[in-house]
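REVIEWER CHECKLIST
Item 1: Sequence provided? yes
Item 2: Single chain? yes
Item 3: Sequence as submitted:
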Amino acid sequence: MPQRNFAVVPFVQRGSRMVAEDVHYLDTYEQAQVVAKFVARKRPGVIILSVSSARADEDPEIVVLEQIGAGLASATATVH
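Item 4: Structure as written out by the authors:
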């Protein structure tokens, strides 16, 4: 069974774009919620992700669990 971690990703405004500033990995969803609420006080948008581990020949499964803040309300994501 794959291991599941959680990630908190705060976003900052750069011109007309919202840009991911950092990624904080945590062991439990409860920890991720506490960190996300703290970070959201100073950032316009924060997302909490569930990230499952994968074998070397597979991509990890990433799911958005929660979005905090009005800054990401109409945002779309581009993954690089």
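Item 5: Key structural point noted by reviewer: The radius of gyration is 13 Å.
Item 6: Recommendation: ____
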